[in-house]
Design goal:
Distance between the termini of chain B: 46 Å
Radius of gyration of chain A: 19 Å
Shape of chain B: globular
Oligomer: heterodimer
Structural class of chain A: mainly alpha
Helix content of chain A: 55-70%
Radius of gyration of chain B: 21 Å
Largest sheet of chain B: 7 strands, mixed
Distance between the termini of chain A: 52 Å
Structural class of chain B: alpha/beta
Order of helices and strands of chain B: HHHHHEHEHEHEEHEHEHEEEH
Number of helices of chain A: 16
Strand order of the largest sheet of chain B: 6-2-1-7-8-10-9
Order of helices and strands of chain A: HHHHHHHHHHHHHHHH
Number of strands of chain A: 0
Chain lengths: ~300, ~300
């Protein structure tokens, strides 16, 4: 066994434990389960009551409900008003987003958890945007896939903070993609650590595939279209201001990415999609995401 | 978590954009190819406002009609585009684009030309206006001549249709507004004070040739051969679709296979040309001649 393989084995063993990782807020599981029912059976008051059980989550949801990112048309003052004006699907998107935010460690050395959350939220929004424009299935599913694609980074931040910080610093100083830096310094990437957690949490198969293969969509089996869509959204975020705290020093041609041809098989309208316009719109998303984060963290 | 958020009424972050303004934005993008994302709509509204004041028009709806229905709509679009691009010209205007040029694009060009005996970088500033762009590019390449462009020569062709802009460019004297982004290092190294203005010094004026050129002049466009880089910022927006297509085709033919076309911030070739491929650079975009299009293959 080489030294590198031994290190990888030791790190993976630590990952297997996954003890340090916080669970998602207790209220989220029953809430999301409740929201999976057919819409006609859902009750606004019940959703409001469930959300109110976690004051911090409720406050974050209210902040997000007032962001243009979720199509808000008027100032929402109450949680009930938020649920009513957003609709149940957006409530579940927002609750999950806040759930991810609450799972992040407080340590801001290395990859700042806030920056990471901005990237995840940005990727969720861009995935939803692309899904809508190319008529790719359920935009809500694309949002969730974009939001959770880097679940493995949360695992690494908690379980291997020192090793992951070294990988992030390598990525930043060399301007290379984070997964390449992880692979070079740890022998594996957040895709592998994410898969461990996704399997433990028994996440939906399409989410597990996105988490495991968003840097190699050609390896995905059943849900290659969704994996490919998230790969492209992730790339656009990393090449803009919604990155991991540094800009990658490279040139990306989306049509040459493996995800592009995979996604083209699932969408006949992809060839007519205006990537330049989306890139300009990213500017606006970026501003909104930053404002939203400032609003949530305001004192 | 850094700070526990409290449960209180949320403050609206932004007011939703006016639908009429969004329609004007989309119309400008479709006809001129320049896009105002939602966070720049206030700027667009301000520019429309200036035109509305001039025309003594009260509502955006009426102004929208001036741009779409009235017989003078083309002239009005040009007037609005002038308002939109006013003050756009300055040294080092688009820093992410220049950083990407230095760190990603120039190394790629050097690599592509590594086997050629002639080490020459050929740059075309198409629609150079009063000269800030070509001088910025020259300063950038001069800085690189002591590093990655060592033993390389640079040739910058700067063209514009407007004689007055060209003579201003050749005088190379600039006021505060144009020079606002200059760092003290560049200011000291490449400029000499002239009253309360600054003049580009002979070092930074070297290797640039200015000439008058109409981008619609097909016979002259054919002679702008063998370019590594073409910059064409806020010029194509004034062309109708057919002329735009012709100009872009000339750019395509005149660029070397590894060449790059840079447009202005938020300018796009969508719906104009399928031969160029959009590429993403850190914080910027450019257009390249895709390999598959070079071999005649189809993208999808």
């Amino acid at each position: 066994m080489t030294a590198a393989t031994a290190t990888k084995q030791a790190l993976l063993q630590r990952l297997e434990g996954l003890h340090q990782i916080p669970t998602i807020p207790a209220v989220l599981a029953p809430l999301l389960r409740y929201l999976q029912q057919p819409v006609e059976q859902l009750d606004v008051q019940k959703v409001t009551d469930l959300l109110s059980q976690d004051k911090s989550l409720a406050a974050q949801c209210l902040q997000m409900a007032n962001s243009p990112l979720f199509g808000r048309s008027q100032n929402v003052q109450s949680l009930r008003g938020a649920v009513m004006s957003l609709g149940f699907h957006h409530v579940s998107d927002i609750a999950m987003s806040c759930g991810v935010l609450n799972m992040l460690p407080g340590d801001k050395t290395g990859l700042d958890p806030v920056v990471f959350w901005e990237h995840s939220l940005g990727c969720a929004l861009i995935s939803r945007h692309i899904a809508r424009k190319i008529n790719f299935g359920d935009p809500g599913k694309a949002y969730l896939a974009g939001l959770l694609h880097d679940l493995g980074i949360i695992v690494n931040l908690w379980v291997l903070p020192r090793e992951f910080r070294a990988a992030w610093e390598m990525g930043k100083s060399e301007g290379i993609p984070l997964h390449e830096a992880e692979h070079r310094s740890m022998g594996f990437t957040h895709c592998e650590s994410g898969r461990l957690l996704a399997e433990r949490w028994k996440l939906a198969p399409e989410l597990t595939e996105v988490i495991s293969y968003h840097h190699s969509p050609e390896k995905s089996a059943e849900h290659a279209g969704l994996v490919a869509l998230v790969q492209l959204a992730d790339l656009l975020c990393r090449m803009s201001g919604l990155n991991y705290g540094y800009l990658e020093e490279r040139q990306v041609n989306l049509v040459e990415e493996s995800g592009f041809s995979l996604l083209a098989r699932h969408s006949t309208t992809l060839k007519d999609f205006d990537w330049a316009r989306l890139t300009f719109e990213l500017d606006s998303y970026m501003d909104e995401v930053h404002s939203l984060v400032r609003a949530i963290y305001r004192t | 978590m850094t700070t526990a958020p409290s449960l209180r009424a949320a403050t609206p972050i932004n007011i939703p954009p006016e639908p009429e303004l969004v329609r004007i934005r989309d119309m400008i993008y479709q006809t001129a190819g320049i896009f105002h994302p939602d966070n720049k709509l206030r700027l667009l509204q301000d520019r429309c406002g200036r035109r509305m004041k001039e025309l003594k028009i009260q509502t955006l709806r009426e102004y929208s009609e001036c741009l779409t229905i009235r017989p003078t709509r083309q002239a009005e679009l040009v007037a609005l585009l002038n308002e939109i691009t006013i003050g756009e010209t300055s040294f080092f205007r688009n820093q992410p684009q220049l950083d990407a040029l230095r760190r990603i694009v120039i190394p790629k060009i050097i690599e592509a030309k590594s086997n050629l005996p002639l080490r020459r970088l050929r740059v075309w500033s198409a629609g150079c206006s009063t000269g800030e762009e070509p001088y910025t590019l020259r300063m950038l390449t001069l800085e690189e001549e002591s590093a990655q462009l060592k033993n390389w020569s640079t040739e910058i062709l700067a063209t514009d249709l407007n004689e007055r802009s060209l003579s201003h460019a050749q005088e190379a004297v600039y006021g505060n507004y144009s020079t606002r982004n200059l760092t003290p290092a560049y200011r000291n190294k490449y400029f000499t004070p002239q009253g309360d203005k600054l003049q580009v010094n002979p070092v930074a004026r070297s290797s640039i040739s200015f000439s008058r050129l109409n981008l619609s002049d097909d016979s002259r466009m054919t002679f702008m051969k063998s370019m590594d880089l073409i910059f064409c910022c806020n010029v194509l927006i004034y062309f109708d679709l057919a002329s735009k297509k012709r100009v872009i085709q000339h750019f395509f033919n005149n660029l070397l296979p590894h060449g790059y076309l840079f447009l202005g911030h938020s300018e796009s070739l969508f719906g104009v040309n399928d031969d160029f491929q959009l590429v993403h650079l850190p914080g910027a975009t450019a257009y390249v001649k895709g390999e598959r299009t070079l071999t005649g293959g189809k993208l999808l």
